[in-house]
Design a protein that fits this description.
With 450 residues, the chain is of the alpha+beta class. The protein has helices at residues 2-15, 58-63, 84-100, 114-122, 140-149, 160-170, 178-218, 221-228, 251-256, 260-278, 306-323, 363-373, 384-393, and strands spanning 30-32, 38-40, 236-248, 284-289, 292-297, 337-351, 357-361, 379-383, 396-406, 410-420, 431-432, 438-439. The protein folds into 2 domains: 2-176, Transferase(Phosphotransferase), domain 1, CATH 1.10.510.10; 232-439, Alpha-Beta Plaits, CATH 3.30.70. It is rod-shaped. The relative contact order is 0.08. This is Guanylate cyclase. It comes from Chironomus riparius.
């Protein structure tokens, strides 16, 4: 539409100028500049060819397709007077080219020659012979304008001043200039693209946060941060940490009496309780394997001798929670666990790339595991190394178990941790078990919590 508007403006100006008439208006004389503005050319000078030198070839007859029927003659020669009404007819043929996106008389050129078409136009038939334009090819008001402009009676054709008014009405809502329209579309596209980029960036940020949160759940925060920054996590030796192991007593028999879904629900309830408890202490959960639960304190952030105190308080809190824990599908069953605690040196590092795990290695880990397996239900089995650190605090209550046989260690002296006189400054909030009853999971440590 912007090209049509440019053509109409140009012809209206030309008809009001001293030139008065174009005379050779056709699509080849309509040029498009660098800003996609239509410019009219080849007007004013009639011809550079003498009549005696003019050759009536196919090119000559093709140019006559834009000539009005009253001016059309097969014997016409250059220099034949032109009229403004003839220019209006030529404009209608150009309009047909724009609409059908082809040459003049595009719909009939496959079965009619140029001379046949020109003869039909010059014959002034009723109805007159004109290009075929379907109603689906263009808006009805544009088709109506086209038919008015190629009317067989020149006096019935509108002037370019009237055509300009009609085109302006048709173009309401359209940009007058194609470049302006392109710039508007580009601006709209840029705005849409900006919104799309902002939306995708927000989605990416959300996925990044989810990934980070997931990584922080499976790895210590400092280790996860190092991995997220693209750095390698080097294995590290820790001289003094405390390891916690626990295991469910009679788990195999319990599984035999339960269906798989009940077992999964039970472990999820239990370990969710454990996870809430350890959140109050400087403790990192290393892993859960089946019914085994492993924690450590003193790494990756060193905390002096507090690692033993943190694990001791946590173990007592977990034991309290287990004593009051109810299994959903076996409410009469008293859950029992064994707990083993040991202190010493370990080596820690990230193992794996697709599913990285923060793993602990060393004899301290093995000893803690064996203390758990040689312990007794609802008791906390403690090594001598851990007992020595406990004694520094003077608040933990330990009972001598005596010498026991540990695989790979021979006879070792071990102890039972039975309680703590220290008032924990971080009493956890009451937890809910799986049947949504408000309970105090720590009746021994925090009897005041109801």
């Amino acid at each position: 539409m912007s090209l049509i508007h440019d053509l109409v403006k140009g012809m209206a100006y030309l008809h009001n100028s001293d030139v008065s008439v174009h005379g050779k208006l056709r699509s080849s004389n309509c040029l498009i500049d660098g800003r996609f503005v239509l410019k009219i050319s080849n007007f004013g000078l009639r011809t550079l060819t003498m009549p005696s030198e003019f050759v009536k070839d196919q090119t000559y007859y093709h140019k006559l397709l834009w000539v009005a029927p009253e001016l059309l003659s097969i014997t016409v020669i250059p220099g034949t007077p032109s009229t403004q009404k003839g220019d209006v007819y030529s404009f209608a043929i150009i309009l047909e080219e724009i609409v059908v996106r082809g040459g003049p008389y595009e719909s009939v050129k496959s079965y009619m020659t140029l001379t046949q078409m020109l003869d039909r136009v010059a014959a002034h038939d009723n109805p007159p012979f004109r290009p075929l334009v379907g109603e689906r090819d263009c808006p009805s008001d544009l088709l109506e304008l086209m038919e008015k402009c190629w009317n067989d009676n020149p006096d019935e054709r509108p002037s370019f001043a009237n055509i300009r008014t009609t085109v302006s009405c048709i173009m309401k809502g359209f940009c007058e200039n194609l470049m302006d329209d392109l710039l508007r579309r580009m601006e709209q596209y840029a705005n849409n693209l900006e919104s799309l980029v902002e939306e995708k960036t927000e989605q990416l940020s959300m996925e990044k946060r989810r990934t980070e949160e997931l990584l922080y759940q499976v790895l210590p925060k400092s280790v996860a941060t190092t991995l997220l920054s693209g750095e390698m996590v080097q294995p590290e030796q820790f001289e003094s940490v405390t390891i916690y192991f626990s295991d469910i007593c009679g788990f195999t028999a319990l599984c035999a009496q339960s269906n798989p879904i009940e077992v999964v629900d039970f472990l999820n309830d239990l370990y969710s309780t454990f996870d809430r408890i350890i959140g109050f202490y400087d403790v990192y959960k290393v892993e859960t394997i089946g019914d085994a639960y492993m924690c450590v304190s003193g790494l990756p952030e060193r905390n002096g001798d507090d690692h033993a105190r943190e694990i001791g308080l946590m173990a007592l809190a977990i034991l309290d929670a287990v004593k009051s824990f109810t299994i959903k599908h076996k409410p009469e069953y008293q859950l029992k666990i064994r707990i083993g605690i040991n202190s010493g040196s370990v080596c820690a590092g990230v193992v794996g790339q697709k599913m990285p795990r923060y793993c602990l290695f060393g004899d301290t880990v093995n000893t803690a595991s064996r203390l758990e397996s040689t312990g007794e239900p609802l008791k906390i089995h403690v090594s001598r190394a851990t007992k020595i650190i406990f004694d520094k605090f003077g608040t933990f209550h330990l009972e001598l178990r005596g010498d026991i046989e540990l695989k790979g260690k021979g006879k070792v002296t071990t102890y039972w941790l039975s309680g703590c006189s220290e008032k924990d400054p971080r009493p956890p909030t009451p937890l809910k078990n799986h049947i949504d009853n408000e309970v105090n999971p720590f009746p021994i440590l925090f009897p005041s919590i109801k």
